[in-house]
Amino acid sequence: MSQMAEMEVEQDENVPSSVNGSHPADPKEHQQQHSKPNGLDEHRPVNRLGVSTVPGLDELWLAVSSNFQDFDSWTKLLTKAESCEDIQELIQAYDAFLGRYPLCFGYWKKYADNLKKRKLPTERVVAIFERGVVAIPLSIDLWIHYLNYLMNNIYKEKTPEDTAAVRKIFDRAINASGLEFKSDKLWDMYINWETENKEFLRVTAIYDRLFKTPTKKYEQHYQKLKEHVREHGPQASVNATELVSFIGKMPKEDVPREFRKLTEADLTATIDFPELVTKKLQDLIIDDRKQVYRQLEKEMQKILAYEEAIRRNYFHVKPLEKSQITNWKSYIDYMLENSTQERIIFLFERCLITCAYYEEFWVKYIGYLEEHGLIERAQEVYKRGGGIHLPGKIGFHTQWANFEEKYGFKENAARVLTELEKMNPEVVSIAVHRCAVYRRMWSLSKAAECLENALSNARERNNIIFLTIKLSRFKAKMEGNYNAAIELVEETLKKYPINERLHLHLVDLEYSRPAVNVVSACKRCDDVMDNTQMPLKTKLKFAQRKIEFLEDFGNDPEQLTEARKQFEALLLDDKDPAAAVAAHHAYGSEYLSGSPPPDKRAKMDAAQASADYSSYYYSWPYYATAGQTQYATSATSYQQYAQYWAAAANQNQGAAAGS
Fold first, then answer.
1. Does residue 213 contact residue 179 with C-beta atoms inside 8 Å?
2. Percent of the chain scored above 70 by pLDDT?
3. DSSP string of 248-296?
4. Residue 315: which of 508, 71, 151 has the closest Cα?
5. Could you say which DSSP state residue 101 is in?
6. Average pLDDT over residues 588-592
7. Are 658 and 626 in contact (CB under 8 A)?
8. What is the pLDDT of residues 103-113, one digit of tens each?
9. Is the pLDDT of residue 647 over 80?
């Protein structure tokens, strides 16, 4: 591609699919992913009006609409549009392309040149240049092209008004891009233009500014300054204040008496200095700047290695080599420790042209801006990064939304997440995040709507279950409507009748009701235990839940005893009681002993599990005097079962070892 083409595990059902929506950090992976029909960027519409009569043009529009990352199709579209007689075809194509790739400075130049070629009014051409230098203000080539157009087409009469207008654009260009390491062409152009205007004082002022700016040809600039001072003399090179100061520094014997008491007012007229005085003054002017130049030399020695390692300082869709990324990181880290805020910000902006697809640089830049209180600028960088270069980066947009909300722009946060959800409807965590933003805004109807829409659009089982529980919890806790919360879960259970999480959530809802319904809660557990399709491990969980519920809220000791017998019967029904006890222990410990949940624990020894189980039941408190005898009998029985289970576990372990 020519420089003109520069731009440049096993899933747990408890976790919804695509909940995090992770996407590749590497631009090559980014490009490959987005080149597929279902890539994230394909949700971003192309601004296309009408149907073209030009053969092949609509097909190219279709190609870039279906795959925003197909740069070759974009260049073909632009070439085709340039050949169309209808100027609107060209304008639509360039506007769409540069909206997606605004850092392609060469195409801003081509766009403006095409409008000029079609003899559009100069203000239309200038408008394109202005859009270009706003989109990529660090582009030296674009500024030079813009200035040449202005001087050759608009301000060619060189009236005082023309000169002032051009100077204003030069100053804008230098302020925007003058810190660029390879900006020498622009500085030279400005110096030469002011020299042609015979504005020699301004030329010296430009050199003074240039000597505080590390550029590639800094040594040549110093030599040119010396030539400038020698050629035009001291009075033309520096202002009266500075010249009087230099005269005062000269030895009296070197300055004729009539020149010793010159004032600034005297120097408004041309003074014919003797040759020796002239030479001495020129030396003083140059030596004074030499001190600044020496400081520049020292700075150049520190950064030159970083600058020379940069192989590509323009935007391109192709990924960077790892060595280039490492160099940018090191360069930024050095500047953060050793430079001024102005130059640090400029280096970040340079980096984001070359590394536009690398999220880490955007995040680091924004972190720097936020740390230094530059909140509005950080907000602008988020908009630029998320809106143009990282449209599919879910993590980046989530941080952006958090940033907006943190600084009080809650509507902006919701808007960011809304647009992100449109591009990633399968990532349910976005809807959950957006719901939370609206909830914190106390827009409860909008918060509920986020989850309701996500649930109605969900297709994958895990997503449906996840969102059902989220929405049900919202209805119960935020709206206080427990009946609606339970009805929602029951509706989803019709699709997935043996889903453990949904049944557990129903029990949790019974627990959290303002007025606890013991009968209803026990029925939830009985429904699971009576379901022949439920695995034993799940039944044991709900038998335990029922016991716990009756312990906490029940008033009938007989009912509690019956619940324990249910649990005992489930254990005896199992063909491998030791394994069943181990499974129960792993579950029960989550609630009883403060241990980590089952999926975060190592497998437990079955004999130890049965012993722990016996110990737990033996220590249960009595509920009522009438139930003490029954409880003691049950505890003794459980100890006997524990001995049996331990023996069974040992037998199983021995058999396993023998095999």
1. yes
2. 79
3. HHS-GGGS-HHHHT--TTGGGS-----HHHHHHHHHHHHHHHHHHHHHH
4. 71
5. -
6. 40
7. no
8. 999 999 999 99
9. no
The DSSP 8-state label assigned to residue 548 in this structure reads H
Q: C-alpha angle 580/499/530, rounded to 5°?
A: 60
Q: 568 or 350: whose pLDDT is higher?
A: 350
pLDDT at 581: 55
Q: Please state the three-class secondary structure of 210-242 as a single string.
A: HCCCCCCCHHHHHHHHHHHHHHHHHHHHCCHHH
The residue written with tokens 């021995």 in the block is 654
Instruction: Return the number of other C-beta atoms located less than 10 Å from residue 68's C-beta.
Output: 24
CB 465 within 8 A of CB 497: no
State how far the Cα of 349 lies from the Cα of 351, in Å rounded to an integer. 5
Tokens at residue 645, please? Answer: 């289970």
Among residues 577, 567, 637, 646, which one has the least CA distance to residue 610? Answer: 646
Residue 158 has pLDDT above 80, yes or no: yes
Please name the amino acid found at residue 613. Y
Q: Give the 3-state secondary structure of residue 618.
A: helix
Q: Find, among 493, 498, 501, 546, the residue nearest to 524 by Cα.
A: 546
| CB-CB contact of 449 with 484 (8 Å) | no
State pLDDT tens for residues 621-641: 323 333 333 333 334 444 444
* Per-residue DSSP letter, 386: I
Cα separation, 379 vs 215, in Å, equals 30
Nearest to 507 by CA among 479, 474, 542, 483: 542
Task: Please tell me what DSSP assigns to residue 158.
Answer: -
Tokens at 141, concatenated: 């080539």
Residue among 205, 122, 135 nearest 165 (CA) = 122
Indicate the average pLDDT of the chain.
82
Alpha-carbon span 129 to 491, nearest angstrom: 59
Q: Convert the pLDDT of each residue in 307-316 to its tens digit.
A: 999 999 999 9
Ramachandran sector of residue 480 (left: φ over 0; alpha: ψ -120 to 50; beta: rest): left
CA distance 339 to 611: 67
Reference 588, options 562, 607, 569, 614; nearest CA is: 614
Q: Is the pLDDT of residue 410 over 70?
A: yes
Structure tokens at 161: 């008004």
CB atoms inside a 10 Å sphere around CB 597: 11
Residue 323 tokens, joined? 């060595």
Per-position b or e across 390-410, b if 16+ CB within 10 A of its CB: bbbbbebbbbbbebbbeeebb
Rounded to an integer, the average pLDDT of 191-199 is 97
Distances (CA, A) of 528 to 344, 486, 504: 63, 16, 10
Can you tell me which residue has the tokens 């996500």? 454
Structure tokens that stand for 28 in this block:
């090559």
**Buried-exposed string 428-453: b where 16+ CB fall within 10 A, e elsewhere:** bbbbbbbbbbbbeeebeeebbebbbe
How confident is the model over 276-310, as pLDDT tens digits?
Answer: 889 999 999 999 999 999 999 999 999 999 999 99
Cα dist from 580 to 567, 615, 652, whole Å: 11, 17, 13
